[in-house]
Amino acid sequence: MIFEAFRRHRAERPDEPAFLIASGDRCMPVSWKRFTDDIATVCWIAEKYAPGAKVAFIGENSYEWMVAHAACIFSGGVAVPLEPALSADDIARRLRAVGASVLLHSALYAEKAHDVARLVPGLATGGFGSRKTDFVINAAVKALGLLHMTVWHRDAPDPARTATMVFTSGTTSEPRAVELALASIETFVESTSSALPMAPGDRSLMLLPLHRIFGIAATYTMLVNGVAIGVCPDFRRIYDAFERFRADFAFLVPALADILAAKIERKAKSAEEALGQPVRWLLTGGAPLSRRTYERLTALGIKTISGYGLTETAACFSMAREADEPRPTSAGRVSSAAGVETKVSPSGELLVRGPCVMKGYYMMPEKTAQAVDSDGWFHTGDAGRIDEDGYVWITGRMSRTIVLSSGKKVAPEEIEEKLLGLPGVLEAVVSGEGETREIRADIYASVPDASVRRAVASLNQTLPVYQRIKTVVVRAEPFPRTASGKIRL
Known about the structure:
The protein is of the alpha/beta class and 489 residues long.
């Protein structure tokens, strides 16, 4: 589906914009011909120098990132996007876990990529826009000019083959690589395309981080539908991006929706008045949208649509339709994509099976068997219900994973393990607090309160921003425990 759509746009709309890139105070279009030519060039490079390789990516959102990602999956490789805020040690650990042999990076992360290469013997690295990369690309362009044959003259890639591995913490501190087939991403594309109005000539934004499956799948959905995508590497400039690229709609996490609402409210009483044109809809996913944010956006004249899914299901489970009557606290209707089935288990857990479900956690058969049962049902870990109209209502987590308002997931056990390594800390319980799900740590220690707080402040400096502890509560007594000795949560 994705490959065929790209080829169709290349043939039927070669001069129409696939991307819009900010350049000074202007908006520069990148045509479908240029985009697909660039993909073909990188495909040639991948097949010549790293055929079938697992290729990792670190960097901010960019046009080059998407060219390289598409070329990787179209040429038979496996794309491994990584959180760029991770330390060099953590990135190296993930590369070794999946056997990645190539690391592509933006200029902003060149130094970190260099540090990673020292930790992973034999790792090849390449920077977007570097002189070395430009030399290789120019050679590839010349070679393709002589061959007169590119990837676009071939059959579409097998949808059953592994296209990407996306890491998720799950409910433990052990990072897991979720192995997803091309069909998984295409299932999201099919489901979303049937639920939301998108068409050639529309404009949107690349706002979701491309190291998360929601961002990857949403971007491919827009491209398949011929939407011109404004590249926004700095999520904090969301209002400027809407104004500059004149976006008709967007895919967001709730935290970004809040930022957008606040900026519009400071400018005018409605999105149309502030931006000069209406925002037709926003799809929020990655975390629950609060009623407060929903009401703010509605008051600004923006239709807000909710979706729900996990990394293991390629962000696909349910989504509201644009034409539906609003149901603010629901996660939308179950997916209408072919082959996708959903149900609620006797214990109240939401289950899904079908082409959206992962192949498994890479090289972790026992973990995979715990998540996907013998009948192919993936156990989401979320408690909820599905009503008679097919709407999904999530009532809580059956596990302890914290989903932040930004859409990032935090495994409490990972932070607890670090807290227990601090001097004097005897017990620690990490949880998500309030609508933003900010990180809270309840600690019992043998040292004074002030010493605990200083130690936590020092620990925070070593953690990615989204994992940092916002609230510290120092207990005077140990936590109550179950009969088996576990802390009673």
